[in-house]
């Protein structure tokens, strides 16, 4: 896949129009359109900016690699890719709800860990009367 296709896929997966992406990156209104049509090629500085914005490597952005971010081991798992594909299908309201649910799961997990640690500590500490 070429740069222009990768850029368009990333942009649409983030739910952005060409104009919105240009605004977020402080580009002229036709810059993204020109990149996606292949009329213009980005400078190295612009490639860095785009890669950083989309959290992908420049190799991925240029179509050299299919690994979006080889430097982030946490997100290389197959399961996370499936999660991202499903997440893209959500509207902004559903994404907010998902974020709240994830916060709840983290809170619940931390509480369970705290209770487990307290329970273990109580069994190891002799009771004093």
* Helix coverage percent: 55-70%
CATH topology of the largest domain: 434 Repressor (Amino-terminal Domain)
Shape: elongated
What profile does the largest beta sheet have? Answer: none
Using only CA atoms, what is the Rg?
A: 22 Å
The level-1 CATH class of the largest domain: Mainly Alpha
- CATH homologous superfamily assignment of the largest domain: lambda repressor-like DNA-binding domains
H/E series, N to C? HHHHHHH
- The mean pLDDT is 83
Q: Tally the helices.
A: 7
The strand count comes to: 0
Fraction in beta strands = under 5%
Distance between the termini: 73 Å
Helix and strand composition category: mainly alpha
Known CATH architecture of the largest domain: Orthogonal Bundle
Number of domains: 2
Contiguous runs where pLDDT drops below 50 for at least 5 residues: none
Descriptive notes:
It contains 7 helices and no strands. With 129 residues, it is an all-alpha fold. It folds into 2 domains: 3-72, Orthogonal Bundle (434 Repressor (Amino-terminal Domain)); 90-124.
Brief rundown of the structure:
The chain has 7 helices and no strands. With 129 residues, the chain is mostly helical.
Detail the topology: elements first, then pairings.
Blueprint: H1 3-13, H2 18-24, H3 31-37, H4 44-54, H5 58-61, H6 78-88, H7 92-124
Task: List the defining traits of the structure above.
single chain; 129 residues; mainly alpha; 434 Repressor (Amino-terminal Domain); 2 domains; 7 helices
């Amino acid at each position: 896949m070429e740069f222009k296709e990768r850029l368009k896929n990333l942009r649409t997966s983030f739910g952005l129009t060409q104009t919105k992406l240009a605004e977020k990156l402080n580009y002229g209104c036709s810059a993204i359109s020109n990149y996606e049509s292949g009329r213009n090629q980005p400078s190295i500085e612009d490639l860095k900016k785009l890669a950083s914005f989309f959290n992908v490597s420049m190799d991925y952005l240029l179509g050299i690699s299919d690994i979006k971010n080889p430097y982030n081991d946490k997100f290389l798992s197959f399961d996370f890719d499936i999660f991202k594909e499903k997440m893209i299908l959500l509207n902004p309201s559903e994404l907010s709800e998902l974020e709240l649910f994830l916060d709840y799961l983290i809170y619940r997990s931390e509480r369970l860990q705290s209770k487990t640690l307290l329970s273990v500590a109580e069994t190891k500490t002799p009771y004093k009367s």
